[in-house]
Specification:
Length: 136
């Protein structure tokens, strides 16, 4: 998804503008990390996010070739890349707490470390125990 959207966006936006929009990807990654429970949001991070957002907004204001399709494709690419990074961190057992985002001990997902992780590899350990408890 990241590769598809990242390549297709070049048909709709200028290269320089795409690079300016890519500067917003760390903000999306931080938001995904906070939602997954891997990051804590504080005042310093809020100031950094505000500065990056302001810079990206100023760059977007003067862009003459801005299209909705290009902006949508860039957003899809950035969000999918951020989710990939966060899910990789979950698979590696990272995060500030001792337990993973679903309340599982880290050793439950640490076994996946020896090979490349897919979305199914990372989601199954979180969904399967709940399905067994509910009688499915």
């Amino acid at each position: 998804m990241t590769l598809w959207a990242g390549n297709l966006v070049y048909m709709y936006l200028s290269i320089s503008f795409i690079q300016m929009l890519k500067a917003f990807t760390p903000v999306i990654t931080l938001a995904c990390g906070v939602v997954a429970g891997l990051e804590h949001f504080n005042r310093h991070k809020a100031a950094s996010v505000a500065l990056i957002t302001l810079g990206t907004a100023v760059a977007a204001y003067g862009e003459g070739t801005l299209t909705a399709a290009g902006l949508t494709l860039n957003t899809i690419g950035a969000v999918s890349e951020s989710l990939r990074l966060v899910m990789t961190q979950v698979g590696a057992g990272g995060g500030p707490s001792r337990r993973g985002p679903a309340g599982l001990a880290k050793h439950a997902v640490r076994k996946k470390r020896g090979r490349s992780s897919s979305l199914a590899d990372l989601c199954v350990p979180h969904v399967w125990p709940r399905a067994r408890r509910s009688g499915c």
